[in-house]
Design goal:
It is a multi-pass membrane protein. The chain has 386 residues and is α+β, with helices and mostly antiparallel strands. Helices cover 34% and strands 15% of the residues. The protein contains 8 helices and 14 strands. A hairpin with an 8-residue loop joins strand 3 and strand 4. Bound molecules: FE2/S2 (inorganic) cluster.
């Protein structure tokens, strides 16, 4: 049996006729077509079959395929424009359920996700359908090589890629080029905006009334804000007295004002508002504590109230282990020490859980003496670890 230079060697054997590596001068003289052919030869690739998808340019089938690809790029571009519009102009400031503008606010995240997802998806489908519709039908056989590629291989691969583009006649497909450029450009612009905008937006806009700085515990017109727990019935007002809680235990509480009694909407809002939940912890008598500077009077005896919203990414820190005094966030395992102003001691959270100032009023109920002195929830540009 005789073998030609193009016969692939048996599996596992070295090619007995490796192609000659051209000199630098020969390489410089080669055109794109020759380089692409050389690339195949160097890689021991034998092209068994190669046929263009549209050998006759300008047919109706070709135009149809071109429009189908362009349509996906156009959808991607429009989605990216919509993403930028939503990201920049849709009302994103937090609104509590029932507040004016809540419905619009609640669509912000789904719309950002949908438009961004569509931009990526349509761009991907556009690229895939371009490859499927225009790349030549090709069957090749290649022997496997070990080790890194050399300079010749790298240059020839680039030539092969360029040839592949040429084989699909990308140069004369201006509709696809324009829509693909539009989609990639607008999508890139959206990504850039998404990266920069959070650094530019002013979390202080609105000052003391800005959504990031105010919770449902903020006193309004001097009205007392009681601590209540949720019985499952918003109309059943279960206010908290110190004797309701055992030493070494934790209770989740929400704000209540007498002016809200009977007002179902306001009562439900107080229970559902994302930044309202507070964990009321009663330490065992005599437990040593370290108080935070400036917040020495925030507790009442052994009672300490901390925001339940994790300062990492906002999960509820629902677990309190009274033996170790650790408050645990189940999401990413951040741990806070209840006896040291809930400062983080493990995990990704970077700052303590904000503490709610509390006392007991003349009637013997636990009440808040003010709102949290800092923003609750995840850290951000001006609120970071301390
Ligand atoms: S949200 Fe609590 S640790 Fe991540």
């Amino acid at each position: 049996m005789t073998t030609s230079r193009h016969d692939p060697p048996p599996l596992g054997a070295e090619n007995p006729h490796p192609p000659r590596t051209p000199s630098a001068a020969e390489l410089a003289d080669m055109d794109q077509e020759q380089l692409a052919t050389l690339a195949a030869n160097l890689d021991d690739v034998e092209i068994v079959h190669n046929q263009r998808k549209f050998p006759i340019p300008g047919t109706r089938a070709e135009k149809r395929a071109e429009r189908a690809v362009a349509m996906w790029f156009l959808i991607s571009a429009l989605s990216a424009v919509a993403f930028i519009g939503v990201f920049l102009f849709w009302p994103f400031e937090y609104k509590a359920p029932g507040d004016p503008g809540y419905a619009l606010y609640s669509y912000y995240t789904p719309l950002v996700g949908f438009t961004f997802g569509m931009a990526v998806l349509a761009l991907g489908i556009g690229v895939i359908s371009y490859v499927k519709k225009f790349f030549p039908d090709e069957v090749s056989v290649q022997q496997r090589h070990d080790g890194a590629s050399d300079e010749v291989a790298r240059r020839t691969v680039m030539a092969q890629l360029a040839k592949a583009g040429k084989d699909t006649d990308i140069a004369r497909r201006s509709l696809i080029k324009r829509t693909a450029g539009l989609a990639a450009g607008v999508f890139g612009l959206g990504l850039g905006l998404a990266a920069v905008a959070p650094l530019v937006r002013d979390p202080w806009k609105g000052r003391e009334e800005a959504a990031l700085w105010v919770t449902g515990w903020k006193p309004v017109n001097g009205e007392t804000v009681y601590l209540r727990y949720d019985t499952g019935d918003p109309h059943e007002i279960a206010l908290v007295r110190p004797e309701d809680q055992d030493p070494g235990s934790m209770m989740t509480v929400f704000p209540f004002r007498e002016s809200e009694r009977g007002d179902e909407e306001a009562l439900i809002r107080a229970l559902r508002r994302a930044d309202n939940p507070v964990m009321l912890i009663r330490l065992r008598p005599g437990t040593p504590v370290v108080l935070r500077e400036g917040q020495e009077d925030f507790h009442y005896g052994d009672y300490y109230a901390f925001s339940k919203i994790c300062t990492h990414l906002g999960c509820p820190t629902s677990l309190y282990e009274s033996q170790t005094q650790r408050i645990l966030c189940p999401c990413h395992q951040s741990q806070f020490i209840a006896t040291e102003y809930a400062k983080p001691v493990f995990g990704p959270a970077a700052r303590p859980l904000p503490q709610l100032p509390i006392t007991v009023n003349d009637e013997g109920y636990l009440v808040a003496t003010g709102d949290f002195p800092e923003a609750i929830g995840p850290s951000f540009w001006e609120i970071h670890g301390s």
